[in-house]
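Customer ticket, subject: "Can you confirm the structure for Tellurium resistance protein TerC?"

Message body: Hello, I'm evaluating your service for our small team and ran a test protein. I'd like someone to confirm that this is what the system normally returns, since I don't have a reference to compare against.
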Amino acid sequence: MGKPVWMWLSFLALVIAILAFDLGILHKENKEIEVGESLRLSALYISLGLAFGGWVWWYLGADSGIAYLTGFVVEKTLALDNVFVIALIFSFFAVPRLYQHRVLFWGILGVIVLRAIMIGVGATLVAEFSWLLYVFAAFLVLTGLKMLFMKEAEPDISNNALVRFMRRRFNVTETHHGEHFFVRQADPKTGKLTWFITPLFMALVLIEVADVIFAVDSVPAIFAITTDPFLVYTSNIFAILGLRALYFALAAMIHRFRYLKPALAVVLIFIGSKIFVADLIGLEKFPAALSLGITFAIIASGVIWSLVKTRDEKVEA
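Agent reply: Thanks for trying us out. I re-ran your input and got the following:
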């Protein structure tokens, strides 16, 4: 796994402590999260992620610290696309704001496990077949070009194969039942009590599947930055931990980041191409500090340009 067991156990203990603090203290009771609270919690999670990056820099060295921070920034930006899809899912299933945090919390737990599996498999394959890094790099370049030049249609959740499958194979309630994912009620055909899944659970399943799809981009991106499994996983998880908190602010102003997607496409092209560029100019790898600087500059330019171009637009309720 690249690092001592105590480092992995310490990181997992830290993540568990953060989640326990979030659920057990900050959100012990269900309540709607307002934009102000969302921003404050996001600032806290970003600070924790950066503080962990500072520890990585101090304990493992500058190269590891820069690799972690680059991965953290890239994953955080990629997560913005995920926010748009999550908002569509919540809207389609008419999930009340009061219960959205519960869905996102359990979604994060699923992400922690799924990303561990995907990154573990990826690290094993890269260790055995180093040429896979070039495949990842080429995939990132092609993905970036596709994002730049091909217009993507808005997902049609009503015709989603998974939604149709769940409605066909399981008993599904027509309405929400508070914060419950499962409820027992009378079967309309037999009159006997049986288990039903609620729209809240269907929303959770779709969010988990959406993360797997987004991980197809983000996992190769981070492996193109560093092949250290510890840095790959920790930067991924710290970036995603804050997504739940940031969602409630971003969902209300996602239109303000309209021009961030082209910037993200350029970042993916850059991250993928720098592996080939390093080979062409005879470097073992692209300078980590330069990579972080260019990545941050591209993303910052996209954010600033988006905010400037949409400054006169009203925030949708």
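A couple of notes from the result: The chain is about 75% helix and 5% strand. The chain has a mean pLDDT of 81. Feel free to reply with more questions.
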